[in-house]
Specification:
Blueprint lengths: L1 E4 L4 E4 L13 E3 L3 E2 L7 E2 L7 E3 L34
Antiparallel strand pairs: 1-2, 3-6, 4-5
Length: about 90
């Protein structure tokens, strides 16, 4: 990610490595934006990393195998939905 620091007038860069435990299937980020009703917009930065179960996860949740031949965890599956081991 590249950004611009207005204080030092410098280009700044950041890098993030994601691991499997960083992904939550069937979840979504909680709302961080609130509208208190007086015309203001509030952003609660303490919730930026919070997730909650998705009320409508749609297709491809962890409990069901996709129709494209891959297992729910992304590995290739056989006709019964079991992970296939190609040696």
């Amino acid at each position: 990610m590249t950004g611009h620091d207005g204080t030092y007038v410098q280009t700044i860069q950041a890098r993030k490595i994601y691991f499997s435990e960083d992904f939550f299937v069937g979840s979504r980020f909680v709302d961080v934006i609130e509208f208190p009703g007086d015309g203001r917009l509030l952003v609660d930065y303490t919730k930026c990393h919070d997730v909650e179960p998705d009320s409508d996860p749609g297709e491809g949740t962890a409990s069901e195998a996709p129709d494209d031949g891959s297992a729910a965890d992304g590995r290739i599956a056989d006709e019964e939905g079991e992970p296939r081991h190609d040696d």
